[in-house]
Amino acid sequence: MSADATVPLRKNEDSPRGFAFALTAYLFWGVLPLYMKALAHIPAAEVIAHRVVWSVPVAGAVLLFLGRTGDLKAALRSPRTIALASMTAMLVTINWGTYVWAIGNGHSLDAALGYFINPLFSIALGALLLKEKMTMPQVVAILLAAIAVIILAVDAGRPPWVALLLTFSWGLYAFFRKTLPVGPNQGFFLEVLLLSLPALAYIVYLESRREGHLHATGLGDTALLVGCGLVTALPLMIYANGAKLLRLSTIGILQYIVPTMVFLLAVFVFHEPLGIARMIAFPLIWAGLLLYTWSMLRESRGR
């Protein structure tokens, strides 16, 4: 049992503190493409390795400050927990790698698309794996998203792989992450701890061949790479603490902040072409999200 499980159950209602935490995290994630764009000249694999390595001391310091290290020791002695954490760590690595590559290579709109689709994918995942019953508005919303993906695939001559990979990796990560028997902060630390050895080995390998960017290419790259730990760990841990103090419906609405900000940055700051297909696909997905949100709010009021 996690340390968080010993905390008395809270009422299913929003708190100003929870809203402030969640909004801070979402706004942080919304401007993260600007940071990743500054790292666009560095290969995505190297950026991910630094995100992992420098997240370990940040996440560890937070756990020590909160006094939440007890159940982490128990998790490290559990083969099942280690195996599950290894799987979620692999999924989040795929998600991070795809995201960093997308921002650095002019595919920010595809990244926004992936995160817009994700809530609808989560509904479908719950129906397929957990046999959760979908409402008719949710079914229509998923169909609209599917039509949008087909339009983009036909226009490009291939599926929108970046958006789909982001959707699948994050959706599956969130699904399996719920079964990890530790608190959110401890779970994140466990994931980056498991990833830290191969990530550190990769960094050492690059630096030994003088192909790395940690110190050979100037203080600017050094600061950006070391700062990956802060920009990765802090918003995740802020969000994890805010989510516990908000209703699921509130979180469901707030999650649109990030892809909306990424979309606006892609169009107005990075000047990525929108194109006719995207001008059709994005409104279809937005219509699906409006249906999903309306259905979710109606169900919440009913309860």
Characterize this entry briefly.
It contains twelve helices and no strands. It has 303 residues and is mainly alpha-helical. The two termini are 29 Å apart.
Secondary structure layout plus pairing:
Layout: H1 16-38, H2 44-66, H3 70-76, H4 79-104, H5 108-129, H6 136-156, H7 161-177, H8 184-208, H9 219-243, H10 248-254, H11 257-268, H12 275-302
Helix pairs in contact: 1-9, 1-11, 2-4, 2-8, 2-9, 4-7, 4-8, 5-6, 5-7, 5-11, 5-12, 6-12
Comma- or semicolon-separated keywords:
303 residues, disordered N terminus
Please explain how this structure is put together.
The chain is mostly helical. The chain has helices at 16-38, 44-66, 70-76, 79-104, 108-129, 136-156, 161-177, 184-208, 219-243, 248-254, 257-268, 275-302. The protein is globular, with a radius of gyration of 20 Å.
Cα radius of gyration in angstroms: 20 Å
Mean pLDDT across the residues is 89
Number of strands: 0
Judged by helices, strands and strand pairing, the structural class is: mainly alpha
How would you spell out the order of helices and strands? HHHHHHHHHHHH
What fraction of the residues are assigned to beta strands by DSSP? under 5%
What characteristic shape results from the CA principal axes?
A: globular
**SS element count, helices:** 12
C-alpha end-to-end distance: 29 Å
Give the helix level as a range of percent. over 70%
Largest sheet: none
* Low confidence ranges: 1-10
